[in-house]
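To whoever picks this up:

The parser on our side crashed when reading a file containing two proteins. I've narrowed it down to the boundary between the first structure block and the second sequence. Both blocks are reproduced below exactly, byte for byte. First block:
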Amino acid sequence: MVSQPRFVILEDHPLVREALAERLVRHLGDVDFVYTGDSVLSALTAIEEHGVDVVVMDLDLNDSVSPIVNVVSLAETGARVLIVSALGDGVTIRAAFTAGVIGFLPKSAEPEEFVAAIEAALRGEKYTSAEAAAAMLADSDSLVDLSDQERRAMVLYASGLKMRAVARHMGVSESTAREYIRRLRAKYEKAGAPLPSKTELYRMAQREGILP
């Protein structure tokens, strides 16, 4: 485990922020809070200036931004993003993991489980609560069989990211990212569901249970 780990807490309820911070201090002792608040932009600025080990965040920040876009922005910094959220349906959880989170647990989790998730995140290990895992087991009646990379590209692109940002987040060239989108569109067209626009692609991602 790292010494004096650096944390960001992104939560729009002050009492919840305080409770999370207190739990971290109680368990880890010497903790550096790089930022606590409800602004992703401010968190990104703080991370750029000071670095961070783990971002603990709620998906519902009431900031009129797609939760998945927020996750992508934070994950791109290299931070390990741990979600603690009441948004716990299978579609949201799957999309969050696809977008780059390292762990997910509900706000109803016991304090001991939160500690276990934090320790896993600090080690760079994924953590999924039993409740989140059960939610993700729900099947979706997909029209097509997408590869992991095609599904990831669909989540990122349909969430509103530009192709250049999709490529950067996936660690591939922009042309490769475009190829993933072209392939998945071809699969849907073959299945009788063409997706010529980004809006239709987004609607399909929701219908397929890929995006919330």
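<<boundary where parser fails>>
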Amino acid sequence: MNSVNKTLYIPLYGKSYVSKKGLFLDDKKAEEIWEAEEFSLKGKSKSKWLAYYMGIRSAVFDEWVKRQMTDAPNAVVIHIGCGMDSRVIRVGTDNHKWYDVDFYEVIEERKRYYAETDDYKMIAGDIRDCKWLTNVKENKTAIVVMEGVSMYLTIDEMRNLADSLCTHFESITLLVDAYTSFAAKMSKRRNPINDVGVTEVYGIDNPQAYQTEKLAFIKEHTMIPEKYIDELKGFERFVFARLYAGSFSKKLYRLFEYKKN
């Protein structure tokens, strides 16, 4: 696996960690995979603060997907850059067709732990060339999530992906987290992904940067809702609220929703 693919182990560890502690997520699959893989993380990658952040981020994405599925009962769900994430289990397909998409090496690894069904399929491919979309036969409405992915793509690559999705589907709702340009600059030296060999990432300061003629920015979401901070207690809550939430956090990391009608 290349260095970008190896970054999947950082959120996997985080979700396994918080699940074991009974915080934010119930993710037995993450616990199972982490215990079986025994991948070696070091430094900031194994920080409990980062684990809390990864757990909350995934819970926020999960909630959004559930709402979108309720509002669009005939939509397909596409999880781009799925890694080893078990969102399809945590959320459930609820009779929606669900596609998890990632690089060939990642999907091969993923197939050791996940089985396809009539509603759930895995697609191997480079999300930047968009050839993987030929495996998606549905073309009406799509709910698309990109969690922890945009920072590895240039703005042009993100816009090309958006164009390809808009060409394929009549209607799209997309949720994507993004680094700011300041966070991308700082990530060359002070990011947990450095621990698995990644040094080149990208950020945006204006959500309109990912817009295209067909895909429009709708709104910004709160990455760290207060209700999840409140699951922490005492000193941990105090530190986490100041390091990973509020105005300081927004200088580094943001969450945007886009839509094609």
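After patching the parser it read the second block fine. The chain has eleven helices and seven strands. The radius of gyration is 17 Å.
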